[in-house]
Design a protein that fits this description.
The complex is a heterotrimer of chains A (about 290), B (about 120) and C (about 300). Chain A is of the alpha/beta class and about 290 residues long. Chain A contains ten helices and eleven strands. In chain A, about 35% of the residues lie in helices and about 25% in strands. The longest helix of chain A is centred in the last third of the chain and has 27 residues. The two termini of chain A are about 20 Å apart. Chain B is α/β, with parallel strands linked by helices. Chain B has a single domain, classed as Nucleotidyltransferase, domain 5 (2-Layer Sandwich). Chain B contains four helices and five strands. In chain B, α2 runs parallel beside α3. The longest helix of chain B is centred in the middle third of the chain and has 12 residues. Chain C has two domains: about 220 residues, Rossmann fold, CATH 3.40.50; about 55 residues, Alpha-Beta Plaits (2-Layer Sandwich), CATH 3.30.70. Chain C is built from ten helices and 13 strands. In chain C, the strands form three sheets. Chain C has a nine-stranded mixed beta sheet with strand order 3-8-9-2-10-1-11-12-13, sandwiched between helices. The relative contact order of chain C is 0.19. The C terminus of chain C is likely disordered. The chains are: A alpha/beta (about 290), B alpha/beta (about 120), C alpha/beta (about 300). Chains in contact: A-B, A-C, B-C. At the A-C interface, α4, α6, α7 and α9 of A face α4, α7 and α9 of C.
Chain lengths: ~290, ~120, ~300
């Protein structure tokens, strides 16, 4: 089972929930941080023996001797990664989206595959033996999806070898990166806070992820801080409310010191164990509906 | 660089005439007024094809300039990719040209009041 | 023209709440919400839309089912897995289509169209704080930064139109394309952080981004009382990078209370927190006035 922990709004508690779920999960599990721009999961799970693999994107390299300056590559490129300026063919590898089109249209074989560094994929193991994978985007690299694609590949490789559930800490928002991380999930958890910003962005997330047709559940973090409109929204949209983490000063401080919330006290541990059970039940019910349809 | 060796100058502008104001952007400028310094005849080069791009507007704008035959560019500021493109094309770039009309920019250029940039502004 | 861009790296540190407060305190500003993925500033600013328009960016491939002969050349060249076979013909899955055009030029029947892609909507509005520009990107799309660039240009237009000389921009979380685009031409970037491991980690990344693009920045530590240790760590980091810390704000329910009332935290009720935000705003002024990076200037004759 793959669980994606997402949200519309940033800072609602995705990483808090992901780290805690991973720590109480009863079956073998793989923790994956897909927020490649600002990965934080490792700060709480603290994996050791981390191995780092460079992730690269295939971008064109020019052999000037063979180039006839026909400009077919520049004509095709939608991203201005190749430009014909007078008698010069200039490449801008930062702009390349890796489509391979220029390599295909060059009739002289003047372009070959080079590499642009996207970032790294770090794989480690926590003190209690849980494998943890993190994508980390190179600073200055503008696009997240190519690196996220590499993380997904590594994730699938591990899933192919060992029977593990996967808990994905997704990036905030509902644009391409967020969609890329939830598309594989069997269940999507939406973490929100009971404030006008929280509700607004929860609605955006719900609208964006609905077309995937996956069961979705909501976790309210900092419950008690704002108003009750989130509960009303969940009820209206028949979105199961799976957990409410109270707004408490000691919880905020525990987080501020890098603590996993499920380890704070017995009450928090129970809250997350219940959440885990409800997530599994949500998935089972969705599967049953499908088989009865 | 002496202005005497440059005949065709492009100025990023908000409109097609010498009386229009300089547009301080390059890549996403609406267009360029291309001036023949000897005759002061002008042509307007529309830069719409750059504005619509999600990325690489500066590179497209450089291509537009090169196709139009500009030897120098007067503008507010140029980004690093557009800079690379313009250097490759051999176009001289003057930055910091703003808050004046195209006509004023050309006058000052002819009088040698501008320095050619040696780096993009950002 | 000065532009203050408020970013954070990490989400949820208080960018939007603070930008709204600054909008309330500034007399001469255009408000700009650059978080086009999940915009929230309008929830406090309550804009009344004056103009809006479609945001078109890039293209998307569309296969004409009548013309498609089912050869599959398109599927073979698509680097993104965006094309699949359905009932003997091929279909493009638009959300996965990168708009690279390779399939279009590879189709022997010329059966693939390449229309502009509608990605969202931009808005020019009026608010009680002044003019505002904002937008909403349709879900699942590449947030390339083009819409951010468009909004920044519109903010400048609005500033000229209304004779205003300050743009207040609420940025997006992260360090990707939209954040990079928000930094362009900023006079000053305000980095809002919190004293937590995530806050520090993400601050380091976003500071690196600002240095990479040579942009002036200053740091505000929000919810500062959560951890004295991390507060110290953030100060040490800022000292090492030569970045001024403009101030601290405590973790205070006044922020949410104001949000629920639909007001900026400095509006309506006077609170100690609101007074601290006013002081921060005052502290920002000299940093905003200082000249930003210079480039070739006109040499007087």
């Amino acid at each position: 089972m793959i669980i994606a922990v997402a949200s519309g709004k940033g800072g609602t508690g995705k990483t808090t929930v992901s780290a805690s779920l991973v720590s109480v999960w009863k079956r073998p599990v793989l923790a994956v941080d897909m927020d490649v721009e600002e990965p934080n999961l490792h700060l709480f799970l603290k994996p050791e023996s981390v191995s780092t693999e460079m992730a690269q994107l295939a971008v064109p390299l020019l052999d000037k001797e063979r180039c006839t300056l026909c400009g077919a590559c520049a004509e095709l490129c939608q991203f201005k990664a190749i430009s014909l300026l007078g008698k010069n063919l200039i490449l801008f590898p930062d702009m390349c989206h890796g489509c391979g089109g220029c390599l295909r249209v060059c009739s002289e074989g003047a372009l070959r595959k080079g590499q642009r560094e996207l970032g790294v994929v770090e794989t480690g193991i926590t003190a209690v033996g849980i494998p943890c994978m993190t994508g980390r985007l190179r600073i200055g690299e503008a696009m997240s999806p190519p690196l996220m694609g590499k993380v997904r590949q590594r994730m699938r490789a591990i899933m192919g070898k060992e029977f593990r559930d996967v808990i994905i800490d997704a990036p905030p928002g509902v644009s391409c990166p967020a969609m890329t991380s939830v598309q594989d999930a069997d269940v999507i958890l939406l973490v929100t806070e009971p404030t006008p910003f929280g509700l607004h962005d929860l609605r955006l997330a719900w609208q964006a992820f609905r077309p995937f047709g996956k069961p979705m559940g909501v976790v309210i973090n900092r419950a008690g801080l704002g108003d009750e409109k989130i509960q009303a929204f969940c009820s209206e949209k028949e979105l199961p409310l799976l957990a409410e983490i109270p707004f408490r000063r000691d919880i905020a401080e525990h987080y501020a010191h890098g603590g996993v919330l499920a380890c704070l006290d017995a009450g928090m541990r129970t809250l997350f164990e219940n959440l885990a059970e409800r997530v599994e039940r949500l998935e089972r019910m969705a599967l049953m509906e499908v088989s009865h349809a | 660089m002496t202005p005497a060796s440059i005949f065709k100058v492009a100025v990023t502008s908000e409109g097609p005439t010498l009386a229009d104001f300089v547009d301080s952007r390059f890549g996403r400028a609406g267009g360029f007024v291309l001036v023949d310094l000897e005759t002061m005849a002008t042509t307007y080069v529309d830069n719409g094809s750059s504005q619509v791009l999600a990325q690489g507007a500066g590179i497209q704008a450089a291509e537009n300039l090169v196709k139009a035959g500009a030897q120098a560019l007067l503008t507010g500021h140029v980004g690093p990719k557009a800079w690379t493109a313009l250097q490759a094309a051999g176009v001289k770039v003057v930055q910091g040209v703003e808050n004046m009309t195209v006509d004023e920019a050309i006058t000052r250029f002819k009088a040698g009041q501008f320095a050619v940039s040696d780096a993009p502004s950002h | 023209m000065r532009e203050l861009v408020v970013i954070s790296g990490k989400g949820g540190t208080g960018k939007t709440s603070l930008t709204a407060a600054f909008a309330h305190l500034a007399r001469n500003a255009v408000l700009c919400d650059l978080d086009v993925d999940a915009p929230d500033l309008h929830l406090i600013a309550e804009p009344s839309i004056q103009r809006s328009g479609p945001f078109l960016s890039g293209h998307v491939a569309e296969i004409d089912p009548e013309a498609c002969k089912g050869c599959g050349a398109c599927e073979g060249v698509c680097a993104y897995g965006a094309i699949r076979k359905v009932d003997g013909r091929f279909v493009v899955d638009a959300p996965h289509c990168e708009g690279c055009k390779v399939c279009v030029v590879s189709c022997p029947e010329g059966a693939i169209n390449f229309p502009d892609r509608l990605c969202g909507t931009w808005y020019e509005s009026e608010t009680r704080f002044g003019p505002m520009v904002h937008a909403l990107l349709d879900p699942g799309l590449e947030n390339s930064g083009k819409l951010v660039t468009l909004l920044k240009a519109k903010a400048r237009e609005q500033a000229s139109k209304f004779g205003l000389d300050l743009i207040l921009s609420d940025g997006a979380p992260g360090i990707g394309c939209p954040v990079i685009s928000s930094l362009s031409q900023a006079s000053l970037v305000l980095l809002v952080t919190e004293p937590t491991p995530s806050g520090l980690h993400d601050l380091e990344r976003v500071v690196e981004l600002c240095r990479h693009f040579r942009i002036r920045s200053t740091v505000l530590i929000n919810k500062a009382d959560l951890s004295p240790e991390y507060q110290t760590a953030i100060h040490a980091f800022c000292d090492a990078k030569d970045i001024p810390v403009v101030g601290h704000l405590p973790h205070d329910p006044a922020v949410t209370e104001a949000m629920v009332r639909g007001q900026a935290v400095t509006e309506g009720i006077d609170t100690p927190f609101g007074a601290q935000v006013r002081r921060i705003w005052l502290n920002l002024q000299p940093l905003l006035e200082a000249p930003s990076s210079s480039f070739s200037k006109e040499i007087p004759s």
